[in-house]
Amino acid sequence: MAKRKYSDGSAVSTSRGDVESSLGAEYEVVLSFRGPDTRWNFADCLYHTMYGAGIRVFRDDEEIRKGEEIGGKLKRAIKSSSICIPIFSRHHAVSAWCLRELAYMVYRKAMILPVFFDVEPRDVKLKTKLYQDALQMHEKYGCEVVQRWKEALEKVAGMSGWDLKDTGHGKLIKLIVAEVSKKLNKRDKKLPDHLVGIEDRVDDVMRLIDEGSPDVRYLVIHGMGGIGKMTLAKVIFNQISTRFHGCSFLLNVREASKGGNDVQLQKQLLSEILNIKQVEISDCDAGIYQIDKRFRNKKVLIVLDDLDKIE
Questions:
Q1: Is 247 helix (H, G, I), strand (E, B) or coil?
Q2: Is 111 left (phi over 0), alpha (psi -120 to 50) or beta?
């Protein structure tokens, strides 16, 4: 249990599980599909295979939903999950719920890995009559809403995913689970068993990071020793690292730099971001060149521990 104290002397006790839940640890993957098309076959097999691999997956089925607004557990799952996997089937666009869900995934800027079950990407891109005709059924929701759904379909259809064409279900499911597991390999940092008052500080840092912004963000956490700078950095790292193409947490940078180990830091950075074991760098300039070349088109998260000089 962690006890959180306030300025008026009051305190609220929370368990570590509550803290982890508030930091988005409940689900890692959201699986979205149209129930009548794939509920009892591909979607079910994919769900249970991911679950068996230790992946925390949320399975949504629009057939059991009521109303016309996304909310509650589904909304929280999409917000907190690192990866969303929509399964596009022939009648996917017939479901207004599926379209709302997809648009919300795009709005949340989640990592989306589409699966084209019995359709092709060009169908989802609205290049054929299949999804075009389905969208005409939703005119009652208004032009603005339908246009938002169209844009979401076209955007996700252009993302890298999987096509079941000429591929067995079992083989493809293995490929999907392997890729998802790889992307979720976020090298979580060990945290203390008792975290006190961490949630507000995490919220403050997340606002400063402004995740989803196209800008490069630099954030400095500074202060005297022992106030929890490292713990806060680890919590943030664990929470958002899977939302990047690569991540790295470099420890004791000041000490390594003084010892002339800049090249070793560069090797570790390249190895962790690119997820490769061996990196060959001849000198510091070569490392700078490699980092500039290899990271240019990637969204990366880098944490540098113990800095005392801006350069």
A1: strand
A2: beta
Q: In 3D, which of 25, 90, 22 has the Cα closest to residue 58?
A: 25
228: three-class secondary structure by DSSP: coil
Label residue 221 by pLDDT band (50, 70, 90): very high
In the predicted model, is pLDDT for residue 63 greater than 50?
Answer: no
138 within a domain of the structure (yes/no): yes
Domain match, 130 and 100 both: yes
Grouping H, G, I as helix, E, B as strand and the rest as coil, residue 283 is coil
- Residues carrying an active site annotation: 101
Q: Please indicate, yes or no, whether residues 161 and 208 belong to a single structural domain of this protein.
A: no
- pLDDT tens for residues 82-140? 899 999 999 999 999 999 999 999 998 778 999 999 999 999 999 999 999 999 999 89
Q: Are residues 146 and 268 in the same domain?
A: no
pLDDT at position 185 is 66
Distance, in Å, from the CA atom of 97 to the CA atom of 66, rounded to the nearest integer, reads 9
User: How far from chain centre, in Å, is Cα 284?
Assistant: 32
Q: Please report, to the nearest 10 degrees, the dihedral formed by the alpha carbons of residues 67, 69, 74, 76 taken in order.
A: -140
In a domain, 12, yes or no: no
Residues 159 and 244 in one domain: no
> In which domain, by residue range, is 262 found?
198-304
Q: Which residue has the tokens 């890692």?
A: 28
pLDDT score of 5 more than 80: no
Among the listed residues 69, 40, 68, the one whose alpha carbon sits nearest the alpha carbon of residue 59 = 40
CATH code for the domain in which residue 118 is found: 3.40.50.10140
